[in-house]
Amino acid sequence: QLAVKSNISLQQKQHLVEDELELSAVRHRPEGLEQLEAQTRFSRKELQILYRGFKNECPSGVVNEETFKDIYSQFFPQGDASTYAHFLFNAFDTDHNGSVSFEDFVMGLSILLRGTVQEKLNWAFNLYDINKDGYITKEEMLDIMKAIYDMMGKCTYPVLKEETPRQHVEVFFQKMDKNKDGVVTIDEFIDCCQNDENIMRSMHLFENVL
Amino acid sequence: MATGVAAWLPFARAAAIGWMPVANCPMPIAPRDNSKRQDELIILNVSGRRFQTWRTTLDRYPDTLLGSSEKDFFYNEETKEYFFDRDPDAFRSILNFYRTGKLHYPRHECISAYDEELTFFGIIPEIIGDCCYEEYKDRKRENLERLQDDQEENKDMKMPNMNFRETMWRAFENPHTSTMALVFYYVTGFFIAISVITNVVETVPCGSTANQKDMPCGERYTVAFFCMDTACVMIFTVEYLMRLFAAPSRYRFMRSVMSIIDVVAILPYYIGLVMTNNEDVSGAFVTLRVFRVFRIFKFSRHSQGLRILGYTLKSCASELGFLLFSLTMAIIIFATVMFYAEKGSSSSKFTSIPASFWYTIVTMTTLGYGDMVPKTIAGKIFGSICSLSGVLVIALPVPVIVSNFSRIYHQNQRADKRRAQKKARLARIRIAKSGSANAFLQSKHNGLLNELLELTGTEEDEHKLTKSISLLESQHHHLLHCLEKTTAHEFVDEQIFEQNCLETALQTFPSGSPSMSDHDSPVGGCCGRRGKKNNPLPNASLLTAHPIPTHQGPLQELSAIHIQSSDPLSHTASRSNLNLKTGDSSKINCKGGRITTAIISLPTPPALTPDGDGLHGPPQRRPPPPPGNPPPPSIQTTTSSAGINIVKVSAL
């Protein structure tokens, strides 16, 4: 049957080209289908579909930051998505080895698409916390905000001004920073988000994506 | 849309969760995936060769034959496959396009056959990948030229609507087009030759007369030569004037090299005419005659080879310059050495360093005239070193330069070609980018109109509008919509953006002063104010400081404003206007509110107000301010309002 065949092909050895081509020397084979099934909340079929798409774009099995930025930028033709893609990349690259393998990719997606609200908020906090020290400072938030606004590009209505991201950050901090100490901790963040109807609802927005 | 990375769209959408905590507005609803079909393998039978692929692979490009329902025409019920009676080899690259997102042009294919296949399967050639695009364009151009050549042979007659001037110019540029042109061509060629020969013969000593020594023919038969000269110059002048008259761009013609040569060739004669009686400058006049030799350059109009040579020299200028420079260095060095070596000897011809230049050059180029020879031993030693190194310095670079000539010549041609192609390629990329952006803007109208219709409840209309957007595209647009909501700004067309900027620049600040708002509602301002489509006075509802934004199509008002503000020419505008009547005042209010808050860009929330709603509504609409208009809530509005610092009043 087809499913079995593709399962086997996933497990087959890749052609390791030990050439002088240093550039494409990095290859990666994901763990078996069963392990991934156990570790994530995706079904077998979904993992197959995901892997096919992943491998199509990245035949070597890993995404490096450049490719990642490239791919992500194609969804936002009007603006510059590279900064936000950089932050996203760091959020997905959980072991910080400079490349996103299929496991990283699928774990991240599992949280985003099938995780509990707590996990999702955790993930978002991790995204905003650029230096991963457990606190979101205003500078970190400003970087993230600027990256998001960069994706809009130049031609917007109303016209984007310099202070817009900063003001947005102020609003954010006003909402989130309960004890006004200038940083947002994970608890403040989760607390505040759970009390916000908008955010709660939007967390469920992409559940049927796959 | 980035169809090549369609598989990553789910990832991009999932990653959008990162925007959610930052956004202050509710997000738009995600498009539903109505087709719950499992992914299945499709068999494509092309003239007997079976290709198989997933259905979703083909669905990536819904505007091609294989991606749309057009392929149903080719479905074979008995064998449950799609049969195409086409070339299977060419089909390979077409199917690969679906798989990889890149269209390649196989070099062994004939260009017209390939083009036909592309047209059949509904794929536009412009999306050929960069790796194969140049080859494809080259072949296409050759093909086109071949076709054109075939046509031109029949087309050499005079085109009916060329006026006299154009005919003349054409005759000058392409002598073979008409007999007159050919005659003219040969006549001028003949006279150029005559003129050059005359100049040469002028200086030959003719046989001496009885009691006079040899004198050059020019002085003997002055009148004859003068007549010849005059005739030639007259012909050249007439020719120049005719070319000047016929030239499409006179200024450009006058600046061109050939015309400068023409002028220089005939000028000495006229100057000579003017200065003929002035003995003082007759010396200079004689010198001027040397410029008559430039007439020989007029032959380059008649000879393609000369033109190529001239062009090549021009393009090799840097190599030649370097050769000259290194030669100069060597000459100076050796001249100096020889001078000081020969200083001691008496009656030495090496009187100064510049005088030694001549010796050095003659020796290095292995000419060896012998008019200057070193006499001292040291001089002879250095002289021999000089001649040996001369061989190296001169003889070696010359072949290199020659090969440089041909290489640079060909390279120049290729570089020009590539430059032209690069411009075209960049234009393509720009178009593709703007195409996808435009697709989003366009579908915004359609999609939002859709939602309007959804609530007014006409299913057929909804289907009519959604048929052209694939699920993939609608998901991508939803993603972009979420980004808009997060940042509380919208994507607009470039033209509209420039319009906006222009209007901003012309706008004067309204004089109204804001009043403090004392309503503190944590509603997402950009959407909350437009919360209720059906409620004409959203402010009334918002007055209650109800923190929960309305569910009923928060998009409606937004869409209304979008439609209002983005594209006045869109066909959706009129229909949406009908729907807007109920929400009219609220919309205006919001718009006004949006605008007024923009005027005051204060970081602290409560200061923002649309109190000047009535004052600062959009001028072209002049709406009456809604009665009892309390200022809308403002805490969460700061995201949108504080962010919106534009003082734009007219939205269209």
TrEMBL record, chain A:
Membrane topology: Peripheral membrane protein
Keywords, in A-Z order: Calcium, Cell membrane, Cytoplasm, Ion channel, Ion transport, Membrane, Metal-binding, Peroxisome, Phosphoprotein, Potassium, Potassium channel, Potassium transport, Repeat, Transport, Voltage-gated channel
Pfam name, any one: EF-hand_7
Gene Ontology terms describing biological process: regulation of potassium ion transmembrane transport
Residues in EF-hand domain copies: 80-115, 116-151, 164-199
SUPFAM superfamilies: EF-hand
Protein name as annotated: Kv channel-interacting protein 4
Gene Ontology, cellular component aspect: peroxisome; voltage-gated potassium channel complex
Domain of life: Eukaryota
Chain ranges passing through the membrane: none
Compartment(s): Cell membrane; Cytoplasm; Peroxisome
Predominant place of localization: membrane
InterPro entries hit by this protein: EF-hand-dom_pair, EF_Hand_1_Ca_BS, EF_hand_dom, Recoverin
Record lineage: Eukaryota, Metazoa, Chordata, Craniata, Vertebrata
Signal sequence extent: none
Record's keyword annotation contains Cytoplasm: yes
UniProt-recorded Gene Ontology molecular function terms: calcium ion binding; potassium channel activity; potassium channel regulator activity
Family note: Belongs to the recoverin family.
From TrEMBL, chain B:
Listed GO CC annotations: dendritic spine; neuronal cell body; postsynaptic membrane; voltage-gated potassium channel complex
SUPFAM superfamilies: POZ domain, Voltage-gated potassium channels
Transmembrane intervals: 180-201, 221-241, 253-275, 320-341, 353-369, 381-402
Organism whose genome encodes this protein: Amphiprion percula
Segments forming domain BTB: 38-107
Signal peptide from the UniProt entry: 1-16
Chain positions covered by the region annotation Disordered: 510-551, 566-586, 600-644
Catalytic activities: K(+)(in) = K(+)(out)
Cell compartment(s), UniProt: Cell membrane; Cell projection, Dendrite
PANTHER family: POTASSIUM VOLTAGE-GATED CHANNEL SUBFAMILY D MEMBER 3 (PTHR11537:SF182), VOLTAGE-GATED POTASSIUM CHANNEL (PTHR11537)
GO biological process, one term: protein homooligomerization
Name this polypeptide is given: Potassium voltage-gated channel subfamily D member 3
Pfam families: BTB_2, DUF3399, Ion_trans, Shal-type
Recorded topology in the membrane: Multi-pass membrane protein
Molecular-function GO terms, alphabetical: A-type (transient outward) potassium channel activity; metal ion binding
